[in-house]
Amino acid sequence: MKTACTATPISKTRTSKRRFIGLAVAWCISATLVGSCGGVQGPGSRVQSPGSRVQSPESGAPIVILVSLDGWRWDYLDRARVPRLRALASMGVRSEGLIPPFPSKTFPSHYSIVTGLYPEHHGIVSNNMIDEAIGERFSMSAPTAKDSRWWSGEPLWVTAQKQGQIAASMFWPGSEVDFGGVRPTFWKPFDDDFPNRQRVQEVLKWLRLPEPERPSFITMYFSDVDSVGHSAGPESSEILATAAELDREIGVLVDGVNTLAIASRVHYVIVSDHGMSQTSTRRVVVLDDYIDTRTVDLIDSSPVVGMWPRTGTAEDIYLALKDKHPSLTVYRRADVPAELHYNSHPRIPPVIGIAADGWTVTTRRQLDDWQASGRQLGGNHGFDPRLRSMHGLFIASGPQFRQGVIIPPLENIHLYAMMARVLGLRPAPNDGRLEATAGVFR
Ligand SMILES: [Zn+2]
To answer: Looking at residue 32, what is its pLDDT?
Structure first.
């Protein structure tokens, strides 16, 4: 069984990895929306600058609150009415985008953020995957997702706990996994019906603990924007309304923190795992037009199809699909471009098809089902992370960070080392570089 202590192979090694996922999974489904906004204080009151946020002169070890707003595309920050996030950005650092790993899917990307590893090195090569050695299928909504054999690398909560700090997780992919006996001191089984406001209150409760019990690293997760992005699309009015609702939750968090003596020690790192692209029933690649889909095990769904042969060979599949449709790029595992870091893990399917931005790749049967039910296609992600549509959110605000700075798009594999630096932790081996986030620090 892999443990966090086992060094994960770093960039030089190659193993493969993999891909991605169904849409309607718990992690992608919206949580209960809590519409009201009963902040302890009004927006502006103590939030102006990290330096001035101090409520008491107490000084002490840094605290990091890592918040994921799943599926928040980079441009929502400017398009939606989100004053609290903009305030954090203006008193801190924002990037023009946060670049996910490939595939730009929930589990691989979240786990890259907390390990600094590309999916081919941390093993969560997609939201759904096969491991012939384990002999099971991984699905992010199934019990297999808690089996530590799937998870390599060392998430930051393990790094913190191993070095004597206390970590807490108000949800995060991987937070329910036992890494060789190490877990966050505080964590909860994932339940997307757990109301957002209660997630915030739970974190504030942890922060009110006395110093010896208080976590220094806390993760939070909110799924609503991803869910609405899938159903209504990234250009919809619904997505802006949902973004505004989550902004109110951020406001409750910040206002709550500002009532605490530790406020001046808190660093907010607010991220998303990927962006969102509008899809359409007019942009669909139907695999059955080129191949007998009964001969293929389609382990993952659009816009990336990972294909294992059921009968015949992987080469048969590759040759049947290669260059057949201008909006479907097909690779043998070994030929996936180096920039995607997606070759070396054995869980990466032997043949991978990647749809062009905004396209869907599926089977005839699925398309027929959609058409019969009148389903319209909303947004999707998983596409090439170099596409602007796949870029997510990055805001860093706190005493160690610069103020009012906008940096170019940043790969999310650099955030593990960045957060370790804030917390004074020695990072485990990872694919990120501290220099990549040098512009974030004062
Ligand atoms: Zn999603």
So the answer is: 26
